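Let's practice the habit of predicting before peeking. Look at the sequence and jot down your guess about where helices and strands might fall. Then scroll down.
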Amino acid sequence: MQILLTNDDGIYAPGLAAMERELRKIADVCVVAPVTEQSGVGHSITFLSPLTAREVFDGERFRGWAVEGSPADCVKLGVFELCKKRPDLVVSGINGGLNAGINVLYSGTVAAAIEGSFFGITSIAVSLEHDEHADFDQAAAMARGVIEQLLAQQRASRQLFNLNFPTSAMKSPKGLRVVPMGVERYGELYIKRQDPKGRDYYWATNDPPPKPTENETDLTALAAGYVTLTALDYDMTKFDMLREMHDWEVELPKS
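Done guessing? Here is the structure:
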């Protein structure tokens, strides 16, 4: 099996290295990751300028490719140019920080997995809650176990998953929840300050926090200490509304 491994924290991120070590136990791994951190870039791609990629070594061992681009760029380039054969699986992570709730839409980590899914490849985004002493090795071992179970389902069509680990699960795992992503709004406030030249600038905060919901989501399950697994899709069509719209008789105005 060939795995394409990428991230949005950059080629030298500890989470990427930990995930690489674990995945090499089960497959050949092709590492293609950004040169620098690309957190929050979403699904941006580079098309108005050339992409450069350079080889990266760990001592004498060829480690992979560092790309001057986004996580989505890395997957596209990995699939079509850099991996020796077409990947059977794309893994993005381990990200330093959760990618849950509405943040899924901003995440470069998740975007890389979505890009793999575009090409019919089962893809998984993996994230660990931010902590100064994050145990990426433990998270990677747990993630590999979950990934192996997902692959064992032997579904013929491509699948797209988002896997998140709270910090507490590294020492006292409560279990895994299969849940939808939360869509509650949060993080709408900014701190307003002035720079040394008297110009206003704004710094986003995470306040207010997500409002409580009666239904379990990735946000509520993570807050309760559970590892979360969510099946995603990139088709944003709202089919029930689309069916209703067929009866609207909307047409171009006559000139």
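How did you do? The radius of gyration is 20 Å.
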